[in-house]
User: What shape does this take?
Amino acid sequence: MTTAVPAVRPANPNFSSGPCTKRPGWSLDALKGAALGRSHRSKAGKAKLKEAIDLTREVLEVPATHRIAIVPGSDTGAVEMAMWSMLGARGVEVLAWESFGAIWVTDAVKQLRLPNTKAVVAEFGKLPDLAAVDFENDVVFTFNGTTAGVRVPNHDWIPADRAGLTICDATSAAFAMELDYDKLDVVTFSWQKVMGGEAAHGILILGPRAVERLESFTPAWPLPKLFRMTKNGKLDEGLFEGETINTPSLLCVEDYIDALNWAKSVGGLKGLIARSNASAKSVYDFVARTPWLKVLAADDATRSNTGVCLVFADPALAAAPLERQAAFAKDFVALLEKQGVAFDFGAYRDAPPGLRIWCGATVEPSDVEALLPWLDWAYAQLSPALAKAA
Assistant: This one.
């Protein structure tokens, strides 16, 4: 721990977990090719949407067997489209270990009120028992728990011969972690996360088993227009060629295309993963030598390489009421924001008080390295008050 002001500042102080920082070198000039003022149903508009879908397939290495659509409502819209359209054919298990997984539990249990639904919930920092999941049921889960910094370690727990569907919220995993599309029937994400795109648009990826469900099962409830993916009992193929359900922002689409082209320039999926891994490793190595911090994820194998969640390990703070811990975390973040060193890196409002440092691919690993001494400096400024309070 040092009281000296660090000599180096992050060149880019944006460490928000969503919307995430723009790709390195981004400027408004990146959007000059946008089809502004054109209908999204025009030849030019459709071409841009199809380009975004095709580049998504290329960068994410999505197999030709899977369809990709741009849908409304960000990742939330994409997940809820899948849940409202596909669930109800068999039992359901919803896994949750952080805030957004808990939302899908609420959707299944309190909104859809599905019979034979099981909520499998673990506390922040831990995964539920994945070995106990019954794949005779449809299974809904987040690949990477954005607000807990805890991810599933692999795909081995998902059987190839499962009877139910897997619906995977991968919004903080796509472009930063390997996804096995043979094991994931539905994959959703928002391009505002790892790609640093602009909000409000989601991506929905459907495997063959998901398509079969859509064409063979009709939910017992009415579906609003925004959720409809079939026409006359068959998949609406146009949706997966860029014929969006509602009007998309072609400015945001252009921005996403720019981010995907940048992704190709840094080595595609492998390059993106390597950037996230490098940034996350810097933080985890720092925590390993820093006694006043600890990683929220209880198991090293489940640590996220995007939203890295940390909590304070100072004994005086750990013994303090939760409100005091939250106030300290708020003061910590505010101090570095005032210095212009780091913005929006506090823990999510439902999570244990602490820090959440985004390490997705658009963050420069060198900026993460530059941030770390400032964490020590901020703690040195604020920790004397802990001793007095104790």
Remarks:
- The radius of gyration is 22 Å.
- The CA atoms of residues 202 and 261 lie 18 Å apart.
- The longest helix spans residues 365-389.
